[in-house]
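Below: protein 1.
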Amino acid sequence: MGQNANTTETYDVSTIREDIQDILRDISPMDFVFMSNAKTRNVSNTFFETAERSLASAVSNNQVAEGEASPANDAQSLPVRIGNYTEISDKVVEVSDTSQKVSGVANAQTIAEGIATATKELKRDMETSLFASKAGNAGSANAGGARVTAGLPTWLRTNVSRATGGANPTLSGTTTGFPNAVATDAISGNMRAISQALLQTVISSCWTNGATPKILSVGPVQKQAVSGFAGNASKTREQANTDGIIMAGMGIFISDFGEISIIPSRFQRTRDAFVLDPEHMEVAYLSTLTQKPLARTGHSERRLLSVEFGSYVYEKAHGVIADLNA
């Protein structure tokens, strides 16, 4: 049916007020496996070190004769120095004076909101960097190159499971130094599926070397694969029959050496699954996250957010199942 002449419709009117909700919606993830579980320490140099020692292997033939006159000296279990570099991450926020004055949705255009957003982004960058496969680097003078802190995968050499063609990362020295070369990734044709057997082997290796692993950190693909382990499948059917609930996920893996919390991470590589002992992982801060005003550039205000940090991982306390299918 038509309409009468000169009927005013919304399509004809240019003065209708806009309707926009005065709230900012953001589901960007802020859950951090490494930073939330690691210890923190303050350091006073761009290269920081930790003394590590391993006791001599236990033996069953340590018997001596009664009254032995001249017992020989035993080799001492001396510590070694293991280090890493700090790296600087920053965000710069600049907002015009006019933006500060106008009325905007949830004040998103203000310097305060810009700083809040940049702070969250900086923390996400830190977590991604701590999980990244990258070697430590001293950088160079005159802004020739940035310092780089070695990421978690570059520490792990002992409790490892790698596919054919994969190889361990290296230290700058034989038994001392810093992680100076990343692990070699197996080619895609040699990658494999995560399995209960692979996980149990790495957990056992960690425990044998003195660790008490508590966390399995995995990306979303591997998290779903772990939930399909055989032990969970039978429980799923049982729960579905008794409670009407389908238990498709698994949050705890009870190994022969204790409970392991299975925590999905959005900031690590899909091809890696990390078995972690939080007691022996640290985020080292030369400078914690700070905010500083920068010189004004005309009619705008600038702020610098920065943090200088590095990772330390006692590598024998952790493990990795590498080269997993994505």
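Below: protein 2.
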Amino acid sequence: MKKHAITLLTLLCALRAPAQLPSTGSGTVQRFENFPSRYVAARNVDVWLPDGYTARKRYAVLYMHDGQMLFDSMRNWNGQEWQVDETAGRLLRERKIRDVIVVGIWNTGLSRHTEYFPQKAFEALPLPLRDSLYKKFGSGENDLFYRKQVQSDAYLKFLVEELKPFVDSVFTTRKERENTFIAGSSMGGLISMYAICEYPEVFGGAACLSTHWPGLFVAEDNPVPQAILAYLQSRLPDPKTHRFYFDLGSVELESWYPPFQKQADEILRAGGYSRKNWQTRVFPGENHSERAWAKRLEIPLVFLLGR
């Protein structure tokens, strides 16, 4: 065990919180409240266990960002949810996916953007340009960074070095890459793409719904998408051992994405990906919301976890 590692006993005693758990339509949720980290701010972690979970089985693991939006719309600011418990539970009953647990990692609000922004892509921009973006999008109505530096490398260290070992020690999981997946939407789609590129030995598949390729909330004179796409091209994982799922709607914010998704698709195709290990889907008329993602969640779950 590493010198500064937090003991399993301490985590189990201090973090498990029975109060205010999501109401689920299938399975149960265990919460580890204020999960500590050496790398990023503490946050809640919700672990969904399917009906009939037993230590006699081993389970694949799907890590999902924006964990507070996954299970219970009554506890969310916008009254929406991904319906992960209902959809995954149904697919398990229908034997369309392998046994799986879902780890919902809460965002921390003001740090969300800086934790989900692909850091190496951002740092590839010239320093004066980065400084200008921090200044422009770090105050007023356009405030995205909240006077914080992009810190997604630290966030991924938290996932890989602290959270995954904890999950693997508490629950009966399949620890290997081919049974470890990551998923999210919008900026959560970006960080899912970044995670599998940064840690191809850890994650075997990524589902990136409504991927926010612009990184910022401006469509014109924005250098970020090309930096992200250049990063993807340079760090694309081996198609023999990895899977990618991308999708997008067509209205409101989603209407920004097609030209960037097309370039990403060209990168994957040139990198050896095919229908066997990559999907990009378009959902006409769908917007940028948990309600929209819930409607199509079955597709990436079956693609990543299908039997």
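Confidence is low (pLDDT under 50) at residues 1-18.
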